[in-house]
Amino acid sequence: MKVFVLAESRKARLELTAGARPYGEQVEVIVIGNDKDSAVADKIWSIPAQEGAMFEDYTETVAALLHQEQPQLLLVEPTKRCKLMAGRLAAMAGTSVMTDLIDLTEDGVGKHLVYGGAAIRKEKAATSLAIVMVGPGVLSGADEGGKGEQEVFPFVQPSHRIQVVSRAKKEKSSVDLASAKRVIGVGRGIAKEEDLGMIRELAAVIHSEVGCSRPIAEAEKWLPKETYIGVSGLMLAPEVYVAVGISGQVQHTVGMNRSKVVIAINKDKNAAIFAQADYGIVGDLYKVVPALIEQLK
Ligand SMILES: Cc1cc2nc3c(=O)[nH]c(=O)nc-3n(C[C@H](O)[C@H](O)[C@H](O)COP(=O)(O)OP(=O)(O)OC[C@H]3O[C@@H](n4cnc5c(N)ncnc54)[C@H](O)[C@@H]3O)c2cc1C
């Protein structure tokens, strides 16, 4: 079976390429411009970067490449632009896209969260090409060896083009939760924004990044939106996840339940988060967190 990989970021490209191994003996990656790091693939299809072109402008080129090479599986990074391109590629190839999978078996059965994360649906492509979007950590831990052959695939002029008028840098959170080994997730158990100082202090002591539940980012706006964890936010699998004042609603836990070790701090002994936890501390976080900082220092 031939597997193709399409990603916007180099990091996702490397992870998907390495993680593609169990799904096919031939793993090939599509790169816009040049990326020598993609040498973990058996073949790198390099599409020449076009001046002023947007990512979507390469859709016709990628479609032509897929048509020529006929892979059975296309693994795609789940960014907005990749989703847009994947949808158009699927329409051109007469197939559908399996989005935001949390698991993909070697025989192509994907697991997908439905009803806001309350249920899991299993799905499988019924066409010769399966287009599948998987987030960080889902395909981790696979072999990274590839032949790294390179071939240039010529750019195909898009039929409907949007012209770029200008580009400006957007200030984003510098936190990289997806690759953090330790993450503290803070929830509504925190009463005031200032109290995040205590959480950051704990994070510094245990060398961790700080993420949150959705209400902390969306409702309170105490932390950036790109740091909330769960079905509509980040799907993480760190070595250690510390849930502080988080109730453990399924919409949150699907984003952290692949963590190796989960520690939960909650004053309610019946909180659902304890069902996910390897270690649980029942207590007031305003007493537990300072005590932990004191001990761990
Ligand atoms: C379609 C949909 C998508 C959603 N997507 C997401 C998502 O991606 N991510 C997400 O997080 N949520 C998501 N939600 C929201 C989700 O359902 C929950 O409402 C949310 O996760 C709850 O956040 P929380 O645990 O911080 O708050 P709460 O549920 O209010 O829990 C606060 C917890 O803090 C504890 N607590 C309070 N005070 C203290 C104290 N002093 N010491 C210790 N513990 C204390 C309480 O016992 C409680 O368990 C989604 C909801 C819907 C409907």
UniProtKB/TrEMBL annotation:
Cofactor(s) listed: FAD
Ranges of residues in domain Electron transfer flavoprotein alpha/beta-subunit N-terminal: 3-168
Recorded superkingdom: Bacteria
Positions bound to FAD: R188, S213, R214, G245, I246, S247, G248, Q249, V250, Q251, H252, N266
Cofactor binding description: Binds 1 FAD per dimer.
Entry GO MF terms: electron transfer activity; flavin adenine dinucleotide binding
Signal sequence residues: none
Keywords recorded for this protein, A-Z: FAD, Flavoprotein, Transport
GO biological-process terms attached to the record: fatty acid beta-oxidation using acyl-CoA dehydrogenase
InterPro entries the record matches: DHS-like_NAD/FAD-binding_dom, ETF_a/b_N, ETF_a/FixB, ETF_asu_C, Rossmann-like_a/b/a_fold
Family named by the database record: Belongs to the ETF alpha-subunit/FixB family.
Protein's name in the database: Electron transfer flavoprotein alpha subunit
Species for this entry: Desulfitobacterium hafniense (strain DSM 10664 / DCB-2)
